[in-house]
Amino acid sequence: MTDSAQDVGEQRQKKDVRDRWLLSAPALVLILAAGVGPLLIVVFYSFLAPGSYGDVKLEFSSEGWFNVLFTRDIFDETVSLADAHFLIFWRSVKLAFATTVLCLIFGFPTAYFIATRAPHNRSLWLFLITIPFWTNMLIRTFAIQEVIRSEGIVNSFLMSIGLISSPIQMMFTDFAIMLGMTYVYLPLMVLPLYASLEKLDFRLIEAGYDLYASRFGVLWRIVIPLVKPGIIAGSILVFVPALSAYVVPRVLGGGKNLMLGNLIELQFGQGRNWPLGAALSVTLVIIVLFAMLYYVRNASKSGGSAHG
Amino acid sequence: MAKSFSIKRQPGFATIAMLCFFLLYLPIATLVVYSFNSGTSIATWEGFSLRWFESAWNNQQVMEASWRSLRIAAVAAVIATACATLAAIATTRTAPYRGLTFKYSIINMPLLVPEIVTAVALLILFSRIKVWTGYSGLGYLIVAHAAFCIPFAYMPIRARLESMDLSLERAASDLYASSFQTFRYVTLPLLWPGILAGLMLAFVISLDDVVITEFVKSGGQDTLPTYMLGQLRRVVTPEMNAISTAFLVLSLAIVTVFFFLSRNPNKNNE
């Protein structure tokens, strides 16, 4: 290639890259303006003082962050740990974790079942999993509420067969939130698990059986290690939205079983403590980022070993 | 491998899977059945009737909220899909270049940030802008929805682009088509199913949104989901079931069309 031809090629490449930036500009600008950019404002607000009627005063204050973990007594200024916040943090983590485990227990066999169907049947089974996923989350939460209410079908069924004499109170409990979140987020677990299981090389399983492995041995020592990236992906996909859930705890948890999402909302509503709300939001984002980081590191690690 | 000992079987897995499908559909089915209840209870069946659909249809608030939801979703989906199409063209079928990873991460960002945090961030930003400009129309909701719909519209369009054959476009430019002509007459028609699929996905996602809308909306700007969220706190009548059922049928119809649209390219590959 002559020098000038190389120049033309290089110029064309530069123009191509420039065009590509121009083409992607609208999407990038829109997301930066109404998705990512405002997050920086939240960080900024977390370091300001609260205004008397909501909003903030333009002066530096670390009170927002201080209030995440501590409370100051109104009268004598003594500092104590914010028990209510710890309780809500703990409930959020506990329920999100329980939800993830439940989704895994139900989701893994389901994904395995779909992945072992005949290829032309798989998309239909997958479609059955995705339908609930695309129906409005609020409607699904409402549906769960209908099922577990005191007059709902679960209680009326149990009472009609005489197992219980009065309805079990399930609504407005942590159990209800956990059940609702499992129901709502289950497809998020099944889909990545299926993606991993579908690629599973069943010759390896056959080899396992040839070497006298039991059913459980094959599952535990061959299948699960091979689909570990899918398990981690699914767990993150469930854990993250469950941790920051707002709608499910608001509807099924009633007013008193708050989770982090509701605590944040409270600060922007009745609480009128925007800096605290902002600090809580940043905390939530940091937890989510750590979860993601964990996923990225593990996924690349297991991805490498799965081929080895 | 036709053996009596199936290597794929795991004891109990099929049972759990069936239970899973049953439990996924039981609550939704109950919801739909009771929307046809003639009584006022959402727990005891008193006979078939369409009265709750009628009552929802005649409920001014419900109709206004539905109409608003559809308008916001339509405009936001079109904006999001247009942006996503351009972005997909800019980020596929190319050697890696500087900034490509940056673009990917920005486009996928709305999927990673917890919705409640985005909602709070937009509340802060928009409440400022509302004070400065005095404008408090539906524009805020449309911008917010368009932004978080972009990654959803982007996915099927990108998938379609990547499965497309480059040779047709090469042939077009060999025949002296300008790059615009190539795009207009070759790329766009081939890409069209992907774009439609993206549009539908964005539409459904916008229609379903509760959290961001709840925080961004001004007074009297309820969408159907935020209206329902408000109603769930009160005594619920089968009217809610009727609204849910109608909503469900609409989403289902759109998703079914989406399913068939996005299935096509895979079939060609097989």
Automatic annotation (TrEMBL), chain A:
Subcellular location field: Cell membrane
Membrane topology note: Multi-pass membrane protein
Main location: membrane
Transmembrane domains' residue ranges: 21-48, 95-115, 124-143, 175-197, 218-248, 276-296
Top-level lineage group: Bacteria
ABC transmembrane type-1 domain sequence ranges: 89-295
Entries under CDD domains matching the protein: TM_PBP2
Alphabetical UniProt keywords: Cell membrane, Membrane, Transmembrane, Transmembrane helix, Transport
Sequence similarity: Belongs to the binding-protein-dependent transport system permease family. CysTW subfamily.
UniProt name for this protein: ABC transporter permease
Species of origin: Shinella lacus
UniProtKB/TrEMBL annotation, chain B:
Cited Pfam families: BPD_transp_1
Superkingdom of source: Bacteria
Alphabetical list of SUPFAM superfamilies matching this protein: MetI-like (SSF161098)
Record's protein name: Spermidine/putrescine transport system permease protein PotC
Localization terms from the record: Cell inner membrane; Cell membrane
Segments forming domain ABC transmembrane type-1: 66-261
Alphabetic keyword roster: Cell inner membrane, Cell membrane, Membrane, Transmembrane, Transmembrane helix, Transport
Topology in membrane: Multi-pass membrane protein
Transmembrane segments: 12-36, 72-92, 104-126, 138-157, 185-207, 242-261
Free-text function comment from the UniProt entry: Required for the activity of the bacterial periplasmic transport system of putrescine and spermidine.
Family per record: Belongs to the binding-protein-dependent transport system permease family. CysTW subfamily.
Protein species of origin: Shinella lacus
